[in-house]
Amino acid sequence: MDSCANISQIHISEHYFREIEVAIKTEMLRCFVTVAQTGNLTDAATRLGKTQSAISMTLKLLEENLGKRLFESDRKNRLTPLGAHVFELAQTQLRQFDYTVKAIQSSANSPQGLIRIASIPSVASLVFPATIEILTKHNPGLRIELRDSDTQQVIDALLRGQADIGIVSGKHSLNGIRQAHLFSDQFGLICAPTHPLARQKQRPTIRDISTVNFITNALSSLIKNPSFHSATIESKLAVHNTMSLTAMVRTGRWVTVLPKTVVKIESSELIFRQIADLPEHRQVFLLMREKTPFPQFTEEIWRYLTQFDWDQLTQLTRQ
User: Which domains does the chain have, with CATH numbers?
Assistant: First the structure.
């Protein structure tokens, strides 16, 4: 008897959630997210090109479907705990929906092929101008989308099917993703020419770094050296955008650690110094989805990038 009741309850629950899923439309979520972002109906209505009454009615329908309030009051400037959770989930859903629509449109507008590439910025600027020129010359109708992102965003794009080819820092085990090592790049101290560590004759050491204002960053987190970790763990400042990071280092008040290729591309005004007791290198890998809409083009890019003379290119950037 109990097992039958449990099965019945499961069926009721599944049916209930299917009804909610059907009842909650994408535009309801967009309306709710916009009101939550603006904090009032007036600005939300302006942004969406709708009347305030239409916005209010949409929110009412959404709350009726959920059976609970999403806002603390009619002013719509404070979310309930449920509203905060729905807001987070709805933003993710809308981003995915909007991307899917754009991807469908891109595919429809690219009958001869579409390749989506995501790469860490330092490598994108090194190789993709030449790569894209060769690809488009051999395949005049090919459409190429290139984005530069940090390593985690590149991986996420590949796993979600939003990119076909990716270049990242570090080795990652990913299901359904082929990978190949491209090159290694030495880590070193980055500082302004006026900084004391730039002026001292001997190579700086990890201990030297521990005595100055140090900025941690996403790439320095790849370093596994225990001494380096101990010396920098007390840093009070972390900057993950490379342009912002190098801008702060240029002031002469902070230092950081980056691969040499990154700093040569991002800023010629900074000094790169080898660290006497830190021999580690950043490893750069090429990733490719095993299943892509246009495999002939992704394979062509794969062959080109894996056969590329990376050592010569990185040596040029280090001069």
Answer: 2-105 (1.10.10.10), 115-319 (3.40.190.290)
Average pLDDT value for residue range 138-146: 84
Distance CA 159, CA 99 (A): 14
Residue 282 · residue 170 · CB < 8 Å: yes
Share of the chain above pLDDT 90, in %: 51
Query: So what's the pLDDT on residue 11?
Result: 45
| Predicted confidence (pLDDT) per residue in 262-271, tens digit | 876 666 689 9
pLDDT on residue 263: 74
Q: Is it the case that residue 252 has pLDDT exceeding 90?
A: yes
